[in-house]
Specification:
169 residues; single chain; two-stranded antiparallel sheet
């Protein structure tokens, strides 16, 4: 198993920031990048606003590891690609990030990274895939109706993720 999760988690928390509850954000109440709905699904129970406000990195780490890093099989992806896919998975959902990766490597985009996807990924140069993921992610953001509200931040995050992914190569 690669040791990239800890570094990627550190970068992720820097992107995500603290508690927000923006009325235009379809994700709703969020802290450290975890939405209330995601935390409730992970804990199998309702969560109060107070619990959301008091989240810590230690409390959200298992959520990220299980629901995002694990879902996109990041431990099995080449370094750099793991971060690019993981960050997009957190920001837009694991199926979207997985489908983007799958379409770039020429396999059926079903949203589940498995042996066929992993086999196809290693046939590509990691830096090329990072560049292609960056471009595809930007195009996705620009297609969203909330781009005028959140777009500058999304593009800044996408650019930072690309640069950070290169640091892992």
């Amino acid at each position: 198993m690669k040791a990239n999760f800890d570094k990627c988690f550190e970068w992720l928390l820097a992107h995500e920031g603290g508690f927000v509850d923006h009325p235009e954000d379809p994700g709703g109440m969020t802290n450290l990048g975890i939405t209330r709905q995601t935390l409730e699904r992970f804990l199998w129970r309702d969560v109060t606003e107070g619990e959301m406000r008091s989240l810590t990195p230690a409390a959200v780490e298992p959520v990220y590891r299980a629901l995002y890093w694990g879902k996109v099989r990041a431990d099995n992806l080449p370094s750099g690609i793991d971060w690019a896919v993981f960050d997009w998975a957190v920001n837009s959902g694991p199926p979207r990030a997985a489908k983007a990766l799958q379409s770039l490597v020429g396999v059926t985009p079903d949203g589940a990274v498995g042996p066929i996807t992993l086999g196809a990924v290693v046939q590509h140069k990691p830096s090329d895939l990072i560049d292609q993921l960056h471009a595809k992610r930007e195009a996705f953001y620009r297609s969203l109706t909330t781009f005028n509200i959140f777009g500058r931040g999304w593009l800044r995050r996408n650019d930072a993720t690309k640069k950070q992914a290169y640091l892992l190569l």
